[in-house]
Specification:
Blueprint: E1 19-24, H1 29-38, E2 39-47, H2 60-64, E3 68-71, H3 77-86, E4 95-100, H4 104-111, E5 118-122
Parallel strand pairs: 1-2, 2-3, 4-5
Pfam family, one: ADH_zinc_N
Cofactor: Zn(2+)
Domain Alcohol dehydrogenase-like C-terminal: 15-82
Length: 123
Amino acid sequence: MNAGIKIKLGIEHSDKQSFDLVVEATGSNSGFSDTMKLIKPRGTVILKSTIASRENLDLTPTVVNEITLIGSRCGLFKPAIDALATGIVSVDSMIDSTFPLENFSEAIEYAKKPDTLKVFLKP
């Protein structure tokens, strides 16, 4: 929990249609599909990414379940940076690995592995 917000990585059967609000930030068709599994009927999905794909994207669940979609790719950075700096929001659980900047090629190869979360480069 972060400031009363339930954070979920991965989906279990009991999670289906159990969230009033879901923030989709993967930028992938599969992430959007997972989001549609998590959101309650008449819930709200915030799209914090651009899904740029030539594959078909099934929007049927958004219509059938009356889902509200809100696009929010860009926004104010200062409030987000302040929330991170003060610890109101913690993203530590999303950091998979940290590599020295000079090992950027190795970091990129590592980031390509399935199920890898965020990979950081440290100057």
